[in-house]
Amino acid sequence: MSRAPEPEADDLDAIAPPQPVFHVEQALLGALLLDPHRLGDVTGIAADSFSTAAHAALYAAISTLPPPDPAEHAKNTQWLDRVLATGREQARGLTASYIHTLIQVCPWPRHAPAYARMVEAEHARRRLQTAAEHLVQTVHDASLPNPVKTVLAEADALGAVVDDIASRFPPRAGVLPRTAVPLPRVTPDRSEAVEEEQLLLATATARPEDIDSVRWLLPDDLTLPLHAGLWQCLTALARRSEAVDPVTVLWEAQQRGLLYDGSEPRDVIRLLAEPAGSLDYWGERTLQRSLLATADQAGRRIEAYAGDPANTPFQLVVGARRSLADIAAIRTRWQHATGPVPTRRPRRAPPTRAGPPTTTAAVAHTARAARATR
């Protein structure tokens, strides 16, 4: 086998394996270089399934070149030379010595299908991590004209990745990721959210008859615990058809223990006494903020799961689907909030049918007529 010049900066043998999967990829490629006919036993992977450009280029060359005659392959290195030349078109750092290293480090060529399954699992983990990162980045992209629509599209793309992994690695019931869930991200400047929630609460206090139109808004959608508690007070008073004004809401808040955190009663009354705009508008603004926060938290949770190599594909699927369920739940509420208001169709009058008399007078008249004919 001819030896190509080996660039000093691209000595692949000197590269420390960044992940255990690096060794798995070496073993798989070595098996295929030693016994090319085993490529038919390898399924579920492609060139982009490998973690390095060199390994991807080698697998692409092995997959595209016609396999050699087994007897000839045992006698000479012509097919290996062609693999190296083809692979160097995509990864110039490939060397003849690295080809020999791959063959030498393969423990058992007959284990190629098992090695391929490991490569497929690691590739699934990287795909999931990349999709989760895209979702989180989209949530924080302030330049988007329609952030909710774009974020939900990214969530759907992430869900498609999860579904594909599930089809390859069916989840086992009850297997959850062991990774610690990251804490919710704290937004440095929440002044806009706080101001809008105050307007939401004040407007609902001034127009409690409109509260029923925003039933899709939940206390957890509000960023401050006090605001969430006051929204519970407002919805409870409206549900009980009781009087609603700043004083009655304050009293309800006291009954629920909301003032124990040091909130001053006069501040609460002042907060509830300055309405502006419409309740629907402030409700949608609050729900949109909650939806983006939910997508951010779900994306970062999945990203953490996928970033932990200890999690199996089964665990990643279960954990990711649980996180995506949070987005699905708030998406449904968003659709109720922003969808067209259904018009009530008039109820059709029940059809009239001929039958026996139903009034007391009619029944008496029928009875007299029957007696007269006797």
**Biggest sheet character:** none
Helix-strand pattern: HHHHHHHHHHHHHH
Percentage beta strand? under 5%
Question: What is the helix content?
Answer: 55-70%
The 3D shape can be described as: rod-shaped
Distance between the termini: 124 Å
Spans of 5+ residues with little confidence (pLDDT < 50)?
A: 349-374
Rounded mean pLDDT is 86
Q: How many β strands by DSSP?
A: 0
- What count of helical segments does DSSP give? 14
Q: State Rg.
A: 34 Å
Structural class: mainly alpha
Q: Can you put this structure into words, describing what you see?
A:
This protein has 374 residues and is an all-alpha fold. It has 14 helices and no strands. The chain has helices at residues 20-34, 53-64, 70-75, 78-88, 96-105, 112-139, 147-168, 191-206, 225-239, 246-255, 265-272, 279-306, 313-338, 360-372. Helix 1 crosses helix 6, helix 6 (112-139) packs antiparallel against helix 7 (147-168) and helix 7 (147-168) runs antiparallel to helix 13 (313-338). The radius of gyration is 34 Å and the shape is rod-shaped. The protein starts with 19 loop residues before the first helix and ends with a helix. Mean pLDDT is 86; it is low at 349-374.
Summary keywords:
single chain, 374 residues, mainly alpha, 59% helix, disordered C terminus
Spell out the blueprint of helices and strands.
Elements: H1 20-34, H2 53-64, H3 70-75, H4 78-88, H5 96-105, H6 112-139, H7 147-168, H8 191-206, H9 225-239, H10 246-255, H11 265-272, H12 279-306, H13 313-338, H14 360-372
What's the quick description here?
The protein is built from 14 helices and no strands.
